[in-house]
Specification:
This protein has about 350 residues and is mostly beta strands. The protein is built from one helix and 27 strands. Pfam families: Pirin, Pirin_C.
């Protein structure tokens, strides 16, 4: 029996999270080939267009009508961290930033005092299926930072550290380090791109870690101990079976772990994949209603009032479901100076 697994939870589309994390959605859509207009080349009959989460035929339109995804909507008081393993996301926002990212990229957006953005999933291949797999993670902001200026950052796949660790039998574990450094057994340190400046993750004392862990068949790896008193959750999202801290576990489980213990992991099936979310709790009251996360009901009411009054800067784009063309190119346009960044 495990000494360090505190809780085991079943996984569906929306995963259980713990302070400082607010939310984690796992989007896994096997979209068909594209229709040449960035949408699916398939009938939309029988879908609840504008609210399609049913997973019919293995994919969803979400709030999209022509292109899958999430048209313009507001946020205040927290951050979104969107990690795209497969497929592409087209971003546009009310501060004038835009981008297309995917194929391993991460977008980190501090909503702060308020921003509107859209997140559309353009289907670019008109000959082959368009698989999409991504995590969207909501990371809370402490009260002192809830009303900071919005911030948009791109963490390109090419700049995201990838640690490759072999066990005694030569089997491989690969750790993608999105946030929180990883110290490998050989003494090498993998330091990720810095998070936005006002993020809870920007202070190393908060021990925020976001890692994707791949274990090849029969691979062994040890998740190293961190500080005491953190929330630490391991999500088993792909594969078949594994042994974690001496306990047999299956795909679609979340394991809530002691943060100050080494955790042994062994893959007992085909290649398996885990997401790790870890961090020091903020420990403040949380009041949430839809896209706004504040500390008090009064602050929530003010958020709704401010959005109705200002639209958080308005929407400078032609469409609420703004997309960026049919070329497979990744880019980011930053609002401050309009500079175009590419991987």
């Amino acid at each position: 029996m495990s000494l360090h697994i505190k809780q085991r939870l079943a996984l569906e589309m929306f995963w259980p999270t713990f302070d400082p994390f607010l939310f984690c959605a796992f989007h896994d859509d096997r979209f068909p080939k594209a229709n040449g207009k960035l949408g699916p080349d398939a009938s939309l009959a029988g879908r609840h267009i504008g609210q399609d989460f049913q997973g019919k035929d293995g994919w969803r339109m979400y709030h999209g009508s022509n292109v899958p995804g999430f048209p313009a909507h507001p946020h205040r008081g927290f951050e979104t961290v969107t990690i795209v393993n497969e497929g592409f996301v087209d971003h546009a926002d009310s501060i004038g930033a835009a981008g297309r990212y995917g194929e391993g990229d991460t977008q980190w957006m501090t909503a702060g005092k308020g921003v509107q953005h859209s997140e559309m999933f353009p289907l670019l291949d008109t000959e082959q299926p368009n698989p999409m797999e991504l995590f969207q993670i909501w990371l809370n902001l402490p009260a002192k930072n809830k009303m900071v200026e919005p911030h948009f950052a791109m963490l390109w796949n090419e700049k995201t550290p990838l640690a490759k660790v072999t066990d005694d039998a030569g089997k491989l574990a690969t750790i993608k380090v999105v946030a929180g450094e990883y110290n490998a057994p050989n003494g090498e340190t993998y330091e990720p791109v810095a998070p936005p400046p006002n993020s809870w993750a920007a202070d190393a004392n908060n021990d925020v870690a976001i890692w994707i862990i791949d274990l090849d068949e029969e691979a062994h790896w040890t998740l190293p101990a961190a500080s005491k008193g953190l929330t630490r959750t391991l999500y088993f999202f792909e594969g078949e079976s594994a042994i974690v801290d001496g306990t047999d576990v299956s795909i679609k489980e979340a394991l809530v772990l002691d943060s100050d213990a080494d955790i042994s992991m062994e893959n007992t099936g085909k290649k398996c994949r885990f997401l790790l979310l870890q961090g020091r709790p903020i420990g403040e009251p949380v009041q949430q209603h839809g896209p706004f996360v504040m500390n008090t009901r009064q602050e929530l009411q003010q958020a709704f009032h401010d959005y109705q009054r200002t639209q958080f800067g308005g929407w400078p784009w032609e469409r609420n479901d703004q997309t960026h063309g049919d070329e497979k190119r990744r880019f980011a346009r930053h609002s401050a100076n309009g500079a175009i960044e590419t991987p």
